[in-house]
Specification:
By secondary structure, the chain is of the alpha+beta class. The protein has a single domain, classed as Nucleoside Triphosphate Pyrophosphohydrolase. The strands form three sheets. It has a four-stranded mixed sheet with strand order 6-3-8-7, sandwiched between helices. A three-stranded antiparallel sheet has the order 5-4-9. It has a two-stranded antiparallel ribbon with strand order 1-2. The longest helix has 14 residues. The radius of gyration is 15 Å and the shape is globular.
């Protein structure tokens, strides 16, 4: 299977090249990414627990799905593609904001991403891809906020950053 390439960008989100995903994470190079947040009519957020065999952040809880745009792919198209690949459903998404973060991991890899935040709505039960997702649940925002404070080691680095930086702006 051909290794996935990520889109390298500058701080203005302008493409400056392509690099294999693993190499970009080994070198900590800034690249484009997205994070999808799906809510139901009760304003609960669908969380996923990353599969236990993932090469970083295995078994941690995070937003509904996240990944990297392919070369030439819009954030919205990438979000819809990956939402279907990981969670087994499609819904309309809206891009809200983006930000840059850098998070080193215990295994020597570093996420250095310009992350586009996408929000959508869904009612129902996802059909999860067990290669990507170990579990899922609907959780109220206040409960998520409290649990991140009490159990930060159960959540991915990017999810904690997004939740902390954008809670008032995006989720209320």
């Amino acid at each position: 299977m051909k290794e996935e390439l990520v889109v390298l960008v500058n701080e203005n989100d302008e493409k400056i090249g392509l690099m294999p995903k693993q190499e970009a994470h080994e070198k900590g190079v800034l690249h484009r990414a997205f994070s999808v947040f799906v809510f139901n009519t009760n304003n609960e957020l669908m969380l996923q627990q990353r599969a236990l065999h993932k090469y970083h952040s295995p078994g941690l809880w995070t937003n509904t799905c996240c990944s990297h745009q392919r070369d030439g792919e819009t954030s919205l198209d990438a979000g819809k593609r990956r939402l279907f690949e990981e969670m087994g459903f499609i819904t309309d998404l809206q891009e809200t904001t983006s930000f840059i973060y850098k998070a080193p991991f215990d295994n020597g890899l570093t996420e250095h991403e310009l992350d586009h935040i996408l929000i959508g709505n869904f009612e129902g039960v996802p059909n999860i891809n067990i290669e990507e997702v170990a579990a899922w649940k609907w959780v109220g925002l206040e409960e998520v906020k409290k649990d991140i404070q009490e159990n930060p080691n159960l959540y991915t680095a990017w999810f904690k950053i997004i939740f902390d930086k954008f809670y008032q702006y995006l989720f209320v």
